[in-house]
Amino acid sequence: MTTPLVIDTDTAQDDCVALLVGLLDPAADLRAITMVAGNVGFDQQVRNAFVTLSAAGRLGEVPVHLGCRRPLVRPWVSAENVHGDGSGGLSMDASGLEPEPEHAVDALVRLAAENPGELSIVAIGPLTNIAAALAKDPGFARNVGSLYVMGGSNNGRGNITAAAEFNFYVDPEAAKAVFAAGFDVTVVPWDPLTLRQAVFDQERLDVIAALGTPLSDFFGRVCAATLEFDRRVGIDGTTHPDSLTAAVLLHPELVRRSARYHVDVETAGELTRGYSAMSWGVHGLAANATVIEEIDSEGFFALLVEVLSRRTVPTREITGL
Ligand code: RIB
Ligand code: CA
Question: What pTM value is reported for the model?
Fold first, then answer.
């Protein structure tokens, strides 16, 4: 039994790893990739997605739809200082490669409506496309089976500011709308979950490098820039919130503890723009989300090692691999 899903992504670094999980995990039935403005320049993100599809040996097999090129209200905010170009300088002859003509928001609405309650969406970038789909189709939240969001922090520190995690910071209005829409939503937060259980230290990175496969080389390249940044800011390894989000959808047994929270996102504050208020039920607020609090970290790492150990043959030659 496979899980039909769409990955909505601002493809850079761990987004690429999340796409590999969606493309290669036998539990996944990846129906589409939808692109949203986030980490790095939009067209660079699209190139990163195509390179990832090729690295997985699946270029041309999964439709790529272009979505919102900027947040709903605010100007785009880049994380190029963190991720570089998002794929470690990898490149590929992209001649003849075209994204789908259908806009990502239309694709999300259509795919959810075609099989009401069946489709899962893994949203690992700013929530602009998801919020736009809500505006376009009032039935979208009802049609989506489950929504898995990488974003926010659970009463913890931010990453782009002290208060806010990047995905919610870039488009706080979109995030606020999504949590008010009635989705069956599960949240993978930055802090504490990602920082405590989804960071790959040098020992784990050595295990991946020792696989000696094209995908382990690909992993090392796309994560290199962010690893350098992470170590500069006191994180001892590569961070994997996006691939964790895909992994817990496909393998719920990885979740050791979660709880119901009321999640809302700050849109009015200056210091607190994008802050995720996660109330644990003692403030008289009805829960609207399941927040993951603990995972099987070794099991998650083993899952990624299994994916990266696949001896795929890139669909097109990737320069730099
Ligand atoms: O804060 C982490 C999130 O922001 C991840 O999705 C990463 O890809 C960036 O988009
Ligand atoms: Ca992302």
Answer: 0.98
